Each structure stands twice: as C-alpha cells, then as structure tokens.
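Researcher: Batch entry, complex prediction.
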Amino acid sequence: MIRLTDVQKEYENGTHALRGVTMEVNDGEFVFLVGPSGSGKSTIIKLLTGEILPSVGRLMINGFNLNNISDRQIPLLRRSIGVIFQDFRLIENKTVYENLSFAMRAVGSSPREAKKRIPYVLKLVGLDGKANQFPDELSGGEQQRVAIARALVNNPYTIIADEPTGNLDPARSLEIMMLLERINQLGTTVLVVTHEKDLVNKFQKRVITLERGVVVSDGVGYNVR
Amino acid sequence: MRRHNFTYFFHEGVVNLFSHGFMSFAAIGITVACLLVMGTFSLVAYNVNEQLRQLESENEVLAFVDETLTEAEGRALQPAVEAVENVRSVRFITREEACETFEEKYEGKYALGDLDAGILRDRFAIKVNDISRMEETRNAVKKVAGIADARADENLAEGFVALRNVASVVCIALIAILLVVSIFIISNTIKLTTFDRRDEIAIMKMVGATNGFIRWPFVYEGFIIGLLSAGISFGLQWLLYATVARSIAVSDVLRIFSVVDFVTIWKPVALVFGGAGMLVGVGGSLTAIRKFLQV
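Model: Structure tokens for the complex:
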C-alpha cells in the first residue's frame, strides 16, 4: 500500500515540487499517475524509493514509514519495490540473464535460486530464448521487457513505472502496458507515471492527476486540462 | 560473508577489471609509475645512507700507547681499551707498521729518507658504535692506564653525522611528498574508473543492494589492481636496479660507490611494494566509490 498524507516537498533551491499531496494506492491496484512536466510526478517517485525525504507530511509504502526510515532500511524498502524507467537502465556489458541475476544477487539470493526464478520471469515477460543476448542486441520494446523482468525478479509488492513507454512506438507501448496489467492481475500493485493520454484512456483504470504539486483529480480517465 | 557471495564478489571484481580494460590499464599504469618512482628514490636514499654509514665506520680513534711500555705490555692493554663504552673494535698497530703506513701515505721514502720507527708510538685503532659520541669515547680511552694520548677527528665525525641527518630528513620528506602525490593520482585514476560505472552503481542501489554488496567487488578489483601493479613495478624495479648497479660496478669513476646487492634486500622491497600497491588499490577504490553510494 502507498499512502501520502499532505506531503510537501521543497528543494534546497526553493522549488516547491509538492504542495500538500494526499493520495492512497491500495494493495493490488493499478493506478496511473499523470500530469504535465513540473507537476511533481518525478518527485513522488523519488520520495517513494527513498531517494529524498518529504519536507512536510506523512509517507508510507509497503509498511515502511518514510518519515523516519533509517539508512539500513532503505535497501529493504527498495527490495519491496520494482522500478522501471523510460531509459531502461540495463547494464550493457551483461547479458539479459546476468542483468536479472545481478538484481537477485544484490538482495542475497543464491545462484541456484536465480537459476530457478529467472527462466520463469523471462517467460512471463515474453523473453524466453533471449537470456544470453546483450541489451544492445534487443529492440527497445524487448529492452523494456528486460527492465520489467528485472523489476519483477525479486517478487516486489509494488511496481513503479516511470514513463515506461516514453522511448517506444505506440504498438510496443501498448504491449508494455498490457504486460504491466497482466503483472497487476497476478497480484502486484502497479503505479504507472505517464503523460500519454491516448494510452491511459485505452485502459479503464484509476488515474490520479497532478498539477503544480497538488492532486487535481482522482478517478477513471485522463483529465489533465 | 557467505561462500557464494565471496565467489561472486571476486568473480565480479575480475570481470569488472577486464570489462573496463582501458581504465584498469590506466590505473595499473599510474600505480606502477608511482611505485617505481617511489621505489627508485627510496633505494637511492637507502644506498646513500649505507654509503655514509660505511664511511662513518671507517672513522677511527687512535689511542697511543705510553712509549715507556714494551710492545707486549702495550698489547696487553687491549682488553681494557675494548671495555670502554661505545668501542666496537680495536686493532693493535705496532710503531713499525705505523711507520710503513706513514711512508706509503706521504711517499716518505723519497721525501723523508729512511724514517726511524722509534719516533712513533705503538697504537690502537679503535672503531666506535655511535660516531656522534666520538669525543666522549676518546676521553674515556685516554683515561685507560698506559694510554698516553688519544686522537680523533671529531669535526669529520660530526660532519658525517650532520650529513646523514640532513640526508635522512630530505629523503623522508621527499618520500612523504611522493607518497601523497601518488595516492592522489592513483585515487583520481580509480575515481575515473568508478565514474565510468556510476550508472551501474545507481542500478544496484535501485534494486536494493546494500552498500557493502556494492563495495566488495570494487575492493577486490582495487586489490587485484594493486597486486598486479606491485608485481609489475617490483620486476621493473629489480631490472632497473640491477642495470644501474652493473653500470656503476664497471665505471672507473663511479665504482667508488658500493651499491647494496638487490638479492640481499629483495624481500623487504617486495613486501613494501606489495603492501603499498594493495593499500593504494583498495584505499583508492573505497574512497572513489564513497561518493556514488550516497543515493
């Protein structure tokens, strides 16, 4: 579960990125977070992954209270979240399998556990047979699937996708969004940050709209003015 | 640390070393160059010190036996002279031997005619342990019954002590400066290799890796870089030293310098090279990644 209560964030340069955001995403939900540039979407992702702390307000995710989280707990928080980025952020000199096993080793899994889990996740994202290829041998859509597989491989409670289709053509974007929907159907909470109106409207899902650091709407459908 | 983690960290360290080949090569190259410069300077300083120590040890106190004593009575004084504090060794010289040495030194056979040994006295040539206490030792020897007089060139002795002290201070200061400069250069080179991998570190942090997990492969990598650099620089140092020592030995002018044989000092040199290499490798890696861990 994600819960923000009257969260404000002011950066050191004086920018008010969030001006009192209150929102809640329940376990197992699929939610789009939309809004124009500068509306505070990226700040919310940074807050949820423990990169920055809120200036004011309360913030909870997957049972972690981010207002007083210790440095030692931050890796544990991040293990409970799978993050997907627009630019994939894969390690270029590692194969698909190694990119995934790397993420599993980072949280203390053994090679045997990785060997068991990775083929299952690659099959889930439609990449079986690509395990030994390097990222630059794959298309953009396939690379994003690898990133999704990496986010999933440690069985997180929540997937946060930051503009996951920003670098993809409409057909691949739809495939990726359908894949995220499928993952949600398997029980994982999914929060997708995007500004692609047409894509959002293809899915009848809850949409939270941010504008200039506040929530301006919360309901089904894209409502940015 | 679990065994599979140790294997993984070591494997990652080795893989990273090769996958970032150019930067690793640069780090090794810089470390080898720094170790070689420091090693060469230290070995030169060590040889200068040894040379001075040798010259110092040749500086002696001459104690003259009372001329009323016979040669046998004079020789009998040796244990008493040896018992004086700071005396390292004592050699008895008869007046005849002293006369021959004098004539050889000043070509007296031609300039002085036949010199009568009777005008000289039997003597002890005394070598001391601590040259800075030469005057004190001379005075103590002078008090031994049967010793008429004792002489020593204290000014020369003091000159040697001062020269060695200055040389030591200059050497230590230069080695310290070189060490600081080397650590700075090596740390910056390793920082560049780490900067090259900041995205990798960011990904590790993002998936929930602990700082320890991220740090270990870098520690192994730094360790391997340090060890390889130490091995290469030690080999080059030996080669360089042997070549220079050989050139000195065959040179008519420079052969007056006695160079310490590398075979007698290779173990401590290897130890210092190994230690310094690993220290700068691991230390450089750790300081370099610290910045990127704060995400």
